[in-house]
Design brief:
Oligomer: single chain
Helix content: over 70%
Shape: globular
Structural class: mainly alpha
Radius of gyration: 22 Å
Strand order of the largest sheet: 1-2
Order of helices and strands: EHHHHHHHHHEHHHHHHH
Length: 455
């Protein structure tokens, strides 16, 4: 007796082939591991460049003579670009393919990132970071969509979360590069590395990374590519010219190219705005801290190298939190988001109230990264799984795009807090408590709605 209905001769005579079942039925080896590794590296490069400006900020202030307040425009400009790029290239991914969108975003931000190293003024920095941000914004939603659609259902939350951990590792590596390379070679080295990596990855993706099976199943004009991919996933699969290829119930999708208004229909009418609120609060807090923490620590008397290392502790904590999220997210989902946000709020409250020695400050920042950045990993992954395949990249793209309102305002608020020469790290730690409190309430509401509506 065959192991699966897809092994029967009837399939070759026109029986429907459920792509979701094919993907779910395979072990996570071979092609799957290759896809996940490439997506992890893609987000590692993305995370490196997202944090590069914050790490370079102290050296830019010294070398170009730019006031700290004026630098806020450059810190926020990249995030304005992300605000545009996330939904725009997210839509491009739903229409023309996740793989093509990732290549487009990588080439865009890699090219403008390299050019940033030659900027001489705050205006040039702001323009180049804005253009870089458009590409950066388009990569993450399409990577999340592709990772979710290449993951067997039993490990989908874990595999998607592990891929997104690449962002935190990239941010941490940027800190190590800032501490070791910038003192000798100057701040442009961060942007040269940050730009070269995605350009090389775009070449690798072009030749190696396959398109999403769910996306191909929704586009009959790409049937030949779909059949070839199914046979790579399941060698020996029998597919005839009359076989109907469909997206299974795990992706609960029947059409592609749904309008943005579909994000507010049916069960998503309340969930989508709450998800957006959650993204805004968490991303505001993350970018407020990561953009200004090196300068705030230097204002508190720490050396530039020590400040870069401290910021790396926040990012390494985020990477560790992402791994923890990957292991337990499948069971907890949005409840885990609630727990992590509560932990982040408590740690930042402590850091704002007590001036800790450097060793304990590093420990506190590490745990803050585990909870705060870990919560963003959980949110990214959970949002990628709550929307159907036909609008998954769009749903995550719009959430990330709206969330960038928080990312943009975070550095601007940091400029206000750190405008005075006496403002230091404790002042900075106090500011995220309000947006994190709002995000915590939104997460509680999502938990209730998801339970009520069975999503």
């Amino acid at each position: 007796m065959p192991d699966s209905p897809f092994d029967t001769p009837a399939m070759a005579r026109g029986q429907a082939i459920d792509v979701g079942h094919i993907v779910d039925d395979q072990p996570v080896f071979g092609l799957y591991l290759k896809v996940f590794a490439i997506l992890f590296l893609t987000l590692l490069a993305d995370g490196f460049d997202l944090q590069a400006m914050g790490y370079a900020a102290p050296a830019i202030v010294r070398d170009l003579g730019i006031a700290r307040g004026a630098l806020a425009s450059a810190l926020s400009a990249g995030l304005v670009g992300v605000l545009i790029g996330a939904p725009a290239i997210g839509w491009f991914g739903d229409r023309f393919g996740r793989r093509n969108a990732i290549i487009l975003g990588s080439v865009l931000y890699g090219s403008f990132c390299i050019a940033t190293g030659w900027a001489d003024t705050a205006t040039e920095l702001a323009i180049l970071r804005f253009l870089t941000g458009i590409g950066l914004g388009g990569v993450l939603p399409n990577v999340i969509a592709l990772a979710a659609e290449f993951s067997p259902g039993r490990v989908r939350p874990m595999m998607t979360a592990l891929v997104t951990v690449g962002i935190s590792f990239g941010g941490a590596i940027a800190g190590v590069a800032a501490a070791t390379l910038v003192p000798a070679q100057g701040w442009p080295i961060l942007f040269q590395i940050g730009g070269a990596a995605p350009l090389l990855l775009a070449i690798l993706i072009w030749f190696v990374l396959p398109e999403s099976p769910s996306f191909l199943a929704l586009h009959p004009n790409r049937r030949a590519e779909m059949v070839a991919l199914l046979r790579r996933i399941k060698p020996g699969l029998a597919v005839s010219d009359t076989s109907l290829i469909v997206v299974g119930p795990n992706d609960h999708a029947t059409t592609s190219g749904q309008p943005a208004a579909s994000l507010f229909e049916g069960p998503y009418r309340l969930i989508t705005p709450l998800v957006w609120m959650l993204f805004v609060g968490v991303l505001m807090s993350i970018y407020l801290l990561s953009s200004w923490l090196p300068l705030a620590l230097e204002s508190s008397g720490m050396s530039p190298k020590g400040a870069a290392v401290m910021n790396s502790m926040l990012q390494f904590g985020g990477a560790a939190g992402g791994i923890v999220v990957a292991v337990i997210l499948g069971r907890w989902r949005w409840r885990l988001v609630v727990a992590l946000l509560g932990g982040a709020w408590a740690i930042l409250g402590l850091l704002s109230a007590v001036a800790l020695p450097d060793v304990w400050l590093a420990v506190g920042l590490g745990f803050c990264g585990v909870s705060l950045i870990g919560s963003q990993t959980a949110i990214n992954t959970s949002a990628g799984l709550i929307y159907p395949a036909a609008m998954r990249a769009k749903g995550v793209g719009f959430a990330l795009g709206v969330g960038r309102l928080g990312s943009i305002s975070g550095p601007l608020i940091g400029a206000l807090v750190l405008g005075g020469a006496s403002a230091g790290a404790q002042d900075l730690f106090l500011v995220p408590l309000l947006p994190l409190g709002i995000a915590f309430v939104a997460a509680l509401a999502i938990v209730r709605l998801v339970r009520q509506r069975g999503l």
